[in-house]
Design brief:
heterodimer, A: about 230 residues, mainly alpha, 2 strands, B: about 110 residues, Arc Repressor Mutant, subunit A, three-stranded antiparallel β-sheet, 7 helices, about 60% helix, about 15% strand, elongated
Chain lengths: ~230, ~110
């Protein structure tokens, strides 16, 4: 497994570094699995009592808040134990480009603005793509809806992230439509189509992250304590 | 001697040194980074990087602070306003010295 940090400017490399260990994908993937899997489960095995339903909804809301609102804090906690001791710390990328920022680059282009800044849109674009699968599968509302939705998700994930800090190889998105076909063959209930797409998307994302994390940990044993002596 | 060429002697030697320029350029774009990250990105040895960071800190171009993430000590470096200004000045001087490549000058004359 070769390490992928293609961008050549420090800012873009720092943004790509955020994804070097797969943790952002694992955390986001777990969020989608919880949301999609929980909703599918709830749809199939509706709890009868009022208290069970309330407990389920409360648990779902808390999980959503934990993963999507405190996701970054959770990742920093994990990275401080896994990543920083191995390959170092750099400011995490922001989700938006700072406005009006000027930047100087020592290249032929002279003064330039952002493309080399430490920013990423991975989070927002991934959420949008996975939920687009949810919408497509819900609108089609037939067993064939899931493979169609997952094919669309695969194409979008590949195309949108192609030049991003975390690009996906075309072969790595192929399991998505394959899993969609699998869900169709398993005769998943039709009313669960929409959330099955989210469940598959989450599983795929978490698997991508886990694969990356295994490779990262194998390549980078814990570094000895740093020794900066001014 | 050409005035532009003479300006080379006015360059800030602290910034002009490639390794230090590299460090300043890194920090310019990432806000802050720790010792290990800079070492990996720049391909420095520990001693080499320590020396350059000390010089930059002494000049007030970077700020170094020690912090703990869990039980892990981190030496985090950040560019200061003075460092930013030095880098900008250096870049302006370089632009004055080399306003364009020879090819582009020839094209302009033609």
């Amino acid at each position: 497994m070769k390490e992928q940090l293609f961008p050549d400017t420090p800012g873009r490399r720092a943004a790509a570094y955020w994804f070097i260990d797969g943790l952002p994908e694992i955390v986001a993937g777990i969020g989608f699995v919880g949301l999609g899997g929980g909703t599918v489960w709830f749809g199939q095995f509706r709890p009868h009592s009022w208290s069970d339903r309330t407990a389920f909804v409360a648990l779902g809301l808390v999980s959503l808040v934990v993963v999507f609102v405190y996701g970054r804090s959770i990742m920093l906690f994990l990275k401080s134990r896994v990543t920083f001791p191995r390959t170092g710390y750099v400011t995490p990328p922001s989700d938006e480009e700072p406005k009006g920022a000027t930047i100087i680059t020592l290249g032929l282009a002279g003064e330039q603005r952002p493309p080399d800044q430490n920013v990423t849109r991975f989070r927002s674009s991934t959420i949008a793509v996975i939920f687009s699968g949810n919408v497509v599968a819900g609108v089609i509302a037939k067993p064939i809806g899931v493979p169609i939705a997952m094919s669309a998700v695969a194409v979008l994930l590949y195309a949108l992230h192609r030049n991003s800090e975390r690009p996906y190889h075309w072969a790595s998105v192929l399991p998505l439509p394959a899993a969609g076909i699998g869900a169709m063959l398993l005769h998943m209930p039709q009313d669960a189509n929409a959330w099955t797409a989210v469940l598959i998307g989450g599983l795929w994302l978490a698997a991508q992250g886990a694969w990356r994390l295994i490779g990262y940990v194998r390549r980078h044993p814990r570094a000895p304590m740093e020794s900066f002596q001014p | 001697m050409n005035e532009r060429i003479r300006e080379i002697s006015q360059l800030d030697r602290l910034v002009h040194e490639p390794a230090r320029l590299q460090i300043l350029m890194f920090l310019r774009e990432v806000e802050e980074a720790d010792f290990l990250y800079l070492q990996r990105e720049g391909g420095f040895t520990q001693g080499n990087l320590s020396g350059h960071l000390s010089k930059l800190e002494d000049a007030g171009y970077i700020r170094i602070r020690k912090m703990f993430k869990g039980k892990m000590p981190l030496t985090v470096c950040a560019l200061t306003a003075a460092g930013e200004k030095a880098l900008r000045t250096y870049w302006e001087q370089m632009k004055n010295i080399m306003p364009g490549s020879r090819k582009s000058e020839q094209a302009t004359r033609a």
